[in-house]
Amino acid sequence: MPAHTTNDAARRQAAAAPGTGNAEPRPAHAPPPSAPSAPSAPSAPPAEAVAPLLRGIAVLRRLTEADGGTLSLSGLEKATGLARSTVDRVTATLARMGYVRLDGRDVTLAPRLTELGNAYLAALRLPALLSSRADALAGELDESVSLAVGDRDGIRFIHQATRRRAMSLSFRIGDLLPAERTAPGPLFATEWTESDWHHWHERRAADPEDRTFPAVPPREHTAQDDDFEQRTTAAAATDCALDDQLIEPGLVAVSAPVRDPGTGRVACVASVVSHTSRHTAEDLRTTLLPRLRAAVTAMENDLRTAPPPEPGTPRSGLATWTTASKHELGREFIESLARGLTVLTAFGEGRSALTLTEVAKATGLARATARRALITHEHAGLVRQTPDHRFSLTPRVLSLGFPPLSRTSLPQIVQPHLTALADRVHESASLAVLSDSGEEIQYTARASTSRVMSAHITLGTRLPARSTALGHVLLSLPEARSLGYALVDEELEAGLRSLAVPVRDREGRTVAAVNIAMHAARRTAADCVKDVLPFLKETAAHIEADLREAGRFRRVPLT
Hints:
The protein is an alpha+beta fold. It contains 19 helices and 17 strands. α6 packs antiparallel against α10 (281-305). It is globular.
């Protein structure tokens, strides 16, 4: 018998484990409680909560929901209800941390912010252990495959293996969807407690059109609660679930649970997503579900045989930098906000559950300071406390910027760095990648200067790789490899001098190159190396740091 259909009694017993509510668990076959008469008001923050930290979390969440992860300062003031002076101080602190970028009156999420979501995904381990199986299944079926975890009465995606089509999956890692409009939702709901069902009814009553879920279109027709209850009962009986155009017309999906081998609980749910032009929902059940189940069985075996995570070197002093920033920036830097967010980075692989003492040691904060930060995060739903007084991150950490940043391409990462470089050296700066043929380079990002005479290259332009400094770096020619840079003097065009350095990914592979191009009359070759190369290398280092964070759990598109 397949592993995912066994040990039903153990699953029901495991559903009683604490962590999602205080009420007695409801057996999967029993009817859920009736809806409450009226939704309850949001709970007030505990007295020990850090108010500036809550404000910073609110700003990051509003930016996450905004188009392109960008809002004006006045837009943030309106969206959060905070005073403009508070918004200015919060965004200045977040910019100092590298979590946002300030461009005039606009605030934009920055790639480094993904370190918070990465901490959760690393502690969870599921993407690292199972994503290759999901990718292989997507290739085998030629359909999109996703992995999702439960987040109270919703689901969040932790991995996406999409197919490039005109009609393709547009959800992002970290997106939150209402459980009742998805295929994974009923499978998670089979383990809901009375408290979870009560919360779900309250949310449905307060938001019948799903306006609080920006990742999905609002409901056109309000569904009855008993429809989801019936789907949950069916999911408990069949160990699978369907989404027949619940999110939007044309979108269909089939899901199966990946169970934790130790507890029998649902660790995550794997889904195959398609379009009605390719499959009906019932067709997914009959033709693709058997192959999905086979992949799930392999995933569960991977979880069963995976070695325990390496504890690694204990982290320490993560937040000690904040004191110097406070001394430098004064009132504009909110140290309690910076310290509070840094607490989330104490977690990771081999550090999925930490005691208060361990968090304090990892951050370099006093126990009282770390405790208040954890209390604040617990109120915000970012941290949960286990019965043995350990703390762990929740999927809601992904709500802090991860969805929009999970779609960031290398040119988007690079652009602000190129602009800063061009402004600094007063010369044009560009990024290029090697073409598929390996014979040409293709320009994918650039920043120009206001000089009368400057290098002008249109994005998408292709040039012979061996005639450019960018090409010398990308081809790893011996001289460029030994020096760490390439200088091409008037080879491509008379009067054009170019200096380039590599951009490497997490594995140390050269995936792109960045350069400065100028007229030969402005600087000698020696001056380029002495005066420009340090700035160019510094820019490449900043790009690589962003690329390492952005590409930790996904492949960053190079173009």
